[in-house]
Write a structure and sequence with these properties.
Elements: H1 2-19, E1 27-39, E2 44-56, E3 59-71, E4 76-78, E5 81-100, E6 105-122, E7 128-145, E8 150-159, E9 162-163, E10 166-167, E11 170-180
Antiparallel strand pairs: 1-2, 1-11, 2-3, 3-5, 4-5, 5-6, 6-7, 7-8, 8-11, 9-10
Keywords: Signal
Protein name: Porin family protein
Domain Outer membrane protein beta-barrel: 7-181
Length: 181
């Protein structure tokens, strides 16, 4: 269902971009995010992230870091046994879009590679297991530009992470602030 939502939202944003006014001028940006992560294995925590990049018109490149927090609620199973907690964070690199609907309101989209690291509490083992890998992230948002240099948005992002039968990706809903220079 998440894939359908992200795909539909991305197509909507692409269509809106065709009719939107021109995005802000070319330039660098820095984006900070604060929100709530919802892990696939159940459990919620605070998500914090920072991005930076360069945008040419409506489209750009970005790179950043996201800490999705920890999930100690619930339990899951994999081919390695049961687990009771996850701590997930990682680096992102991808593309983004900032599509103006009018001089202040905008739609945004982003997608790319998520290089993640996870500490997993195995129920049948007194030690934590450490995993890392490369998967994907994608998201959509809506926001308001208070000026040519500053905007605030509300975003939904999906971070996919899984290995060896573990599936501990997370969905986030976050507020972001973007500074352009």
């Amino acid at each position: 269902m998440n894939k359908i939502f992200v795909t539909a939202a991305a197509l909507t944003i692409a269509a809106a971009a065709a009719y939107s006014s021109s995005a802000r001028a070319d330039g660098f940006f820095v984006d900070g995010r604060f929100g709530r992560s919802d892990f696939d294995s159940s459990g919620k925590d605070t998500a914090l992230g920072i991005n930076g990049g360069y945008r040419w018109g409506a489209f750009g490149l970005e790179g950043g870091y996201i800490d999705l927090g920890s999930s100690d609620a619930g339990a899951g199973r994999s081919n390695m046994g049961a687990y009771s907690g996850i701590d997930l964070k990682g680096w992102t690199a991808g593309v983004n879009g900032h599509f103006n609907l009018n001089p202040n309101w905008y739609l945004s989209a982003r997608a790319g590679v998520f290089h993640w690291k996870a500490d997993v509490d195995l129920s049948n083992n007194p030690r934590n297991a450490k995993f890392n890998g490369n998967d994907w992230y994608a998201g959509v948002g809506v926001g308001y530009d208070f000026s040519e240099r500053f905007g605030v948005g509300l975003n939904y992002d999906r971070y996919r992470a899984g290995k060896n039968g573990f599936d501990f990706g997370a969905d986030t809903v976050s507020v972001n602030t973007e500074f352009r220079f």
